[in-house]
Design brief:
Length: 417
């Protein structure tokens, strides 16, 4: 185990333990440490990802559409300049259409009154920049190659025993260990779960036409197909593909040669960017929407995918998780700096109240979209085509939708304003 715990006595001096050093857990640890709190960051992977792991000639398969609000948080943290220097692709336009009908809707940054609608960023780029913030931070003790084994609660906080026998104690323990959170299970927090019977098939492609800074998505019979713009070394013909479809269709797609897969993508996409050739590995992710019944218990909180996992069709998962991190950090730091008990429900309930509504609304919206676009009934096809085309002509409604999609919802934490 790689331990940087020499900077502190982890069993005695910790203010917060964060389990899971993905994008959300690392952002949370950085926010707390930058405010002066003593944090332990526990991660199963043996090594933190660094810039040398990110390929500057080829895009990583996993990308996220980061909203301008997430960009502000990453700027506040100090991660964004390194990300922007390495590789981020802004998009100013979005096109969404019904592959089974005639409905189509277009959005633009100008209509929304913003500089960009968002950026497509490889997850490894965001992760490498966030890792830089915590790796050498004097207030962060990193435990890599470490997983929790048992959990105990006392009046003073949570005691976490790691698989190698080390024991950590803090007034607050945060689960940021992803959709299948082991810590959430150890804390006996139940989830509602909606198996969407869909898988996301993910790859990177090069098209014959440039993407024009536009994120495109077609709703097809099996699920949505997104072409997300990527610019590599000034070449704007790359796209990251997320094709959500039935497991049976995903089996068929995964069995194709790269050439045949590129052709299938081009056809399904109506050849809007010309010819398509696959230039990365092809990966599959089963899609299950989950929502924890509680985000908090005494001395414990869930953030990110550990609290909620959502269909990728609107590219909201990590954006919601980063907002969880920002709001939890704000509430905890406020309590800690006044000398109030930051691990108790009096503080943690405020976090849950501020985040649950937003997350529930977004999960509900994604379910509604899937049902509307997944139905082959003529009445639904007519409704969504009329709805899309009608909305495309309603500038004020589009502005409201854009504000929601860009993350401008509710009372934002100070770090995101
Ligand atoms: C195909 C696809 C496309 C997506 N596109 C977008 C998009 O465009 N925009 C967007 O916002 N979101 C998107 N998402 C969602 C986004 O990827 C997730 O919401 C995000 O990665 C969640 O981050 P996290 O840090 O909460 O969890 P994770 O990324 O799952 O990180 C969890 C961390 O915890 C560690 N861990 C796990 N178990 C343990 C343990 N027992 N002990 C210690 N450590 C542990 C893991 O190694 C990992 O480092 C997409 C998802 C998919 C599947």
């Amino acid at each position: 185990m790689d331990t940087l715990a020499t900077k502190t006595d982890p069993a005695k001096d910790l203010d917060v333990i964060v389990v899971g050093a993905g994008m959300v857990g690392t952002a949370l640890a950085a926010l707390l440490a930058q405010a002066g709190m003593q944090v332990a960051l526990v991660e199963a992977r043996a090594e933190p990802l660094g810039w040398h792991d990110v390929d500057d000639t080829q895009a990583g398969a996993r990308v996220s559409a980061l909203t301008p609000v997430s960009q502000r948080l990453l700027t506040h943290l100090g991660a964004w300049p390194a990300m922007a220097r390495f590789r981020v692709t802004p998009y100013r336009y979005m096109q969404v259409w019904d592959g089974e009908g005639s409905g189509e809707i277009h959005f633009s940054a100008d209509e929304a009154g913003v500089a960009v609608l968002g950026h497509i960023v490889e997850n490894d780029v965001t992760q490498a920049a966030l890792n830089d913030l915590v790796r050498e931070h004097p207030k962060v003790a990193c435990f890599f190659g470490a997983v929790p084994r048992t959990l105990q609660t006392t009046a003073s906080g949570r005691w976490l025993t790691l698989a190698d026998g080390q024991v950590l104690h803090a007034p607050l323990l945060v689960a940021a260990d992803g959709a299948r959170s082991a810590l959430r299970d150890l804390a006996e927090i139940d989830v509602t779960s909606d198996d969407m019977r869909q898988e996301a098939v993910v790859t990177t492609v090069k098209c014959t036409q440039t993407h024009g800074g536009t994120a495109r998505q077609a709703f097809l019979e099996g699920g949505p197909l997104a072409f997300l713009p990527l610019t590599l070394n000034d070449d704007a013909r790359f796209c990251s593909i997320v094709w959500s479809t039935t497991p049976e269709h995903a089996d068929t797609l995964a069995g194709l040669t790269p050439e045949a897969f590129g052709q299938a993508l081009g056809e399904a996409f109506g050849h809007r960017l010309g010819g398509v050739s696959v230039c990365g590995g092809i990966y599959r992710f089963p899609l299950v929407q989950r929502h924890a019944r509680q985000y908090v218990k005494p001395h414990l909180a869930l953030v990110g995918d550990a609290a909620h996992s959502i269909h990728p069709l609107a590219g909201q998962g990590v954006n919601l998780g980063l907002m969880d991190a920002a709001v939890l950090a704000e509430e905890v730091i406020n309590a800690w700096s006044r000398g109030a008990p930051w691990g108790e429900l009096s503080t943690l309930d405020r976090y849950e109240r501020r985040r649950r509504w937003d997350n529930t609304a977004m999960l509900g919206l994604m379910k509604g979209f899937r049902e509307l676009f997944g139905s082959r009934m003529p009445v639904f096809t007519l409704a969504r085509n009329l709805g899309m085309s009608g909305m495309n002509r309603l500038a004020p409604v589009k502005r409201i939708v854009m504000r929601q999609a860009t993350g401008e919802r509710g009372r934002l934490p100070l770090s995101c304003r």
